[in-house]
C-alpha cells in the first residue's frame, strides 16, 4: 500500500473551495501530501488549510490570470521547494441570475456570448495556464502528476429530459458551454500526456458523474434511474481515483480518463 502514499509530496488544487475541490484536498492530505488550497477567496483557503492533517496552506488564485498563476508557483516553491501534483479543478457551471429567464437564456439559440466566453476563460484557459506554468516547472524538475477534472458531459451529450419538472415542463437546458469545455479538457489531457511523457510528467483526467448536492428529490430520482448503481455520486466518490492518479500506484498511466459515474456512460 506504500505505492498509494503521498507522504512528502506537494499538491496544488485549483478551485479548491468548491464541493469537489474540498474533497480533493482532503483526499490528498489524508494520503500524506501537503496541499496548497487555491481559490479566489484567500482567507477561506487559509481557514480550510488549517483543518487538514498535513502541513498545508491556502492562497488566493485567479486561474484566468498568468501573473496570478506565476505568483502562486513562486510562493509554493519558496515555502516547499517543489511541486509534485497539480489538480486542475477550477471550473464553473451554468448559473442564471434570473430564474425566470433560465429557460430562454439556456436555449442554444439564445445562449449569451458573454457566458460562453466566461466558460472558455475559466474552464479551458485556466487549465491551460496552470498546466503551462506549473507543469513546465514539473517537466524541468524531474516530473510530476497533473490531474484534470473533466465530466461525463465531456464524453456524452447532456440528457435534456433530466431538466424537466415532475409535470414534464422544461425548467432549463443544459447549455453548450459546459460539455464543450469538458470535452476540450479531455483532448488537452491527451495532448499534454504525449507532449511531456518523456519528461516524466503524467497527465490524466477524472470524469465524475452528477454529484448529489441538494437538488430536488424528483431530479435525484430521475438521475438515479439512468445510472446502473441507481444513485447520484457522493462528493467523496472521487477521492480514491484522485489519490490513485496522484500516487506511484498509477506510475505507468498517462493520457487516461478515469470515469467515476456509477455506470452512467455505459448506456
How does this model look, in words?
The structure is a single chain. This protein has 267 residues and is of the alpha/beta class. The chain has a single domain (2-266), classed as Rossmann fold. The protein contains eight helices and seven strands, in the order βαβαβαβααβαβααβ. The protein has helices at residues 19-30, 42-49, 66-80, 102-105, 113-139, 177-196, 217-225, 239-246, and strands at 10-13, 34-39, 57-60, 85-88, 144-149, 201-208, 257-260. The chain has a seven-stranded parallel β-sheet, sandwiched between helices.
Summarize this, please?
The chain is an alpha/beta fold and 267 residues long. 39% of the residues lie in helices and 13% in strands.
Question: Which terms summarize this structure?
Answer:
globular, Rossmann fold, alpha/beta
Specify the helix fraction band: 25-40%
Q: Low-confidence runs (pLDDT<50, min 5 residues)?
A: none
Through-space gap between termini: 34 Å
Strand segment count: 7
Shape: globular
Rounded to an integer, what's the Rg over CA atoms? 18 Å
Mean pLDDT, all residues = 96
SSE pattern: EHEHEHEHHEHEHHE
Indicate the proportion of strand residues: 5-15%
Question: Under CATH, the topology is which?
Answer: Rossmann fold
- Write out the CATH superfamily name: NAD(P)-binding Rossmann-like Domain
The structural class is alpha/beta
Note the topology.
Blueprint: E1 10-13, H1 19-30, E2 34-39, H2 42-49, E3 57-60, H3 66-80, E4 85-88, H4 102-105, H5 113-139, E5 144-149, H6 177-196, E6 201-208, H7 217-225, H8 239-246, E7 257-260
Helix pairs in contact: 1-8, 3-5, 5-6
Amino acid at each position: 500500500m506504500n505505492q498509494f502514499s503521498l507522504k512528502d509530496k506537494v499538491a496544488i488544487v485549483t478551485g479548491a473551495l468548491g464541493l469537489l475541490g474540498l474533497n480533493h484536498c482532503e483526499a490528498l492530505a489524508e494520503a500524506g501530501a501537503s496541499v496548497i488550497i487555491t481559490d479566489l477567496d484567500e482567507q477561506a483557503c487559509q481557514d480550510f488549510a488549517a483543518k487538514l492533517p498535513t502541513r498545508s496552506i491556502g492562497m488566493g488564485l485567479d486561474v484566468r490570470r498568468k501573473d496570478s498563476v506565476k505568483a502562486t508557483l513562486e510562493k509554493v516553491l519558496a515555502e516547499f521547494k517543489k511541486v509534485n501534483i497539480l489538480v486542475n479543478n477550477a471550473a464553473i457551471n451554468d448559473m442564471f441570475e434570473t430564474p425566470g429567464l433560465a429557460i430562454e437564456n439556456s436555449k442554444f439559440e439564445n445562449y449569451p456570448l458573454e457566458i460562453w466566453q466566461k466558460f472558455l476563460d475559466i474552464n479551458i484557459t485556466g487549465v491551460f495556464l496552470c498546466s503551462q506554468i506549473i507543469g513546465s516547472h514539473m517537466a524541468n524538475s524531474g516530473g510530476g502528476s497533473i490531474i484534470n477534472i473533466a465530466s461525463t458531459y465531456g464524453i456524452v451529450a447532456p440528457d435534456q429530459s433530466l431538466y424537466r419538472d415532475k409535470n414534464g415542463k422544461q425548467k432549463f437546458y443544459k447549455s453548450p458551454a459546459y460539455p464543450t469545455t469538458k470535452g476540450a479538457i479531455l483532448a488537452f489531457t491527451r495532448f499534454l500526456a504525449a507532449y511531456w511523457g518523456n519528461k516524466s510528467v503524467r497527465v490524466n483526467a477524472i470524469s465524475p458523474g452528477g454529484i448529489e448536492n441538494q437538488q430536488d428529490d424528483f431530479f435525484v430520482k430521475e438521475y438515479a434511474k439512468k445510472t446502473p448503481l441507481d444513485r447520484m455520486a457522493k462528493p467523496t466518490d472521487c477521492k480514491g481515483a484522485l489519490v490513485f492518479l496522484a500516487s506511484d500506484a498509477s506510475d505507468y498511466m498517462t493520457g487516461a480518463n478515469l470515469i467515476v459515474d456509477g455506470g452512467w456512460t455505459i448506456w
